[in-house]
Design a protein that fits this description.
164 residues, alpha+beta, 4 helices, 27% helix, Muramoyl-pentapeptide Carboxypeptidase, domain 2
Length: 164
């Protein structure tokens, strides 16, 4: 399947609909397909309304699209995608970090997949400066703001692993 001129055999129009894909940077589409190949397991794009493109909310979000006020044409495209890897979340997170395909890699431990089942979600984006974070029980945690970041993250990964 081709989306925005990018060959994406592992994704469908349901996951990345044309009406949203037109507002997405083709580089994020290329990178998510490369990530899928590297990961070696399915990566289900979140069907949540803001998982690909957002026209409201925080303007600093990599999902946020800016439209020209007169022409309505995009001036800034979405450079982010949210989804659910169908493998161990620590492995998926590690591959996302080591692949160097993404500048921003966040893991959300308080999400439900497209079937309403609790499952960690990855946020992957193209921001220029690297940033990692996690969200647990609605609280965002960053390594530069939390002395226990890596210890707490490790515990969340361990808890998640024992639940599978």
């Amino acid at each position: 399947m081709e989306i925005n001129g990018v060959n994406m055999p592992n994704f469908t129009n349901k996951e990345i609909p044309p009406e949203k894909a037109q507002y997405m940077d083709s580089k994020i589409l290329e990178n998510i397909q490369l990530y899928r190949y590297t990961l070696g397991c399915p990566f289900g794009v979140s069907l949540d309304r803001g998982a690909l493109v957002r026209f409201s909310g925080r303007k600093t979000s990599e999902h946020f699209v800016i439209l020209h006020p007169e022409t309505g044409l995009p001036m800034k495209l979405s450079r982010a995608i949210d989804g659910f890897p169908e493998c161990n979340i620590f492995e998926a997170w590690s591959v996302a970090l080591s692949s160097k395909l993404f500048g921003g890699v966040g893991v959300y431990f308080d999400t439900k997949n497209n079937h309403g089942v609790p499952q960690p979600m990855l946020h992957l984006d193209l921001r220029p400066a690297p940033l990692i974070w996690y969200r647990h029980e609605g609280v965002y945690c960053y390594p530069h703001k939390d002395d226990n970041f890596f210890k707490d993250l490790q515990n969340l990964f361990l808890i998640r692993r024992t639940l599978k």
